[in-house]
Amino acid sequence: MDKRNVCDKQAGISVVEMLVALALGLILVLGVVQLFTSSKRTYQIQDAAAKLQEDGRYVLTRMSQELRMAGMFGCLAASNIANRPAAFDDPIEWDNGTGTLRIVTSNATRGVGTTTNADWTLVTDCRTNATVQAGVAAPGAGQVALPVRLVEYRFDADAGELLFRGGGAGAFTTLMSGVQSMNVSFGLAAAVEDSYVSGNYVAGAAVPNPELIRSVRIEIVLEDSEGLVSDQPYSVAVALRNRSI
Predict the structure, then answer these.
(1) Domain-located, residue 37
(2) pTM
(3) Number of structural domains, the chain?
């Protein structure tokens, strides 16, 4: 027998073996691709949900801080404040027709005397007198200057955006996109002298007297522009601190 013919028959890979190897390799590659695709999809969903949560927390925290300082107009009673603007009388207003929340809020958290971002400045000695001046003003000897701002948040349902404006004039700017809805309701006291909420929250149009407002509830629904996650609702209820104005 010719040994060379025997060796030739035993050498190399058959077509069947090659097809089996290719099939196994293809299955392995498809498994890796599927795992990668699934991991990427999971990451995208988690990232989209985290962004919505971050956006919701940001805007509600921002509005909560301004609501808590609404109506904080110094250390004296309202009767002792000269040149008191009419806007101070109702520091929180909700216009249901335009979807606008107006807040007259103190900027005192930035530091007493820091008035570089003020629509009004309340200058007071905290003992006998106080006066309100438009814009930025410096305190005199023995006085402090408290900055006060007018901020407005407007929900644009057509564009799905939350808009912001400061100072009560000029154009609104986009604060956040992807806002599906925004609702504002109020917790009211039974009487002006009461400090607690009586009954359920009511819509802004149902507030008989702004002085009865003791808390504000803001509810927003955010949507992901890419549709990776379902619409996410967020809400906050803010108790007002300054209702003796």
Answers:
(1) no
(2) 0.79
(3) 1
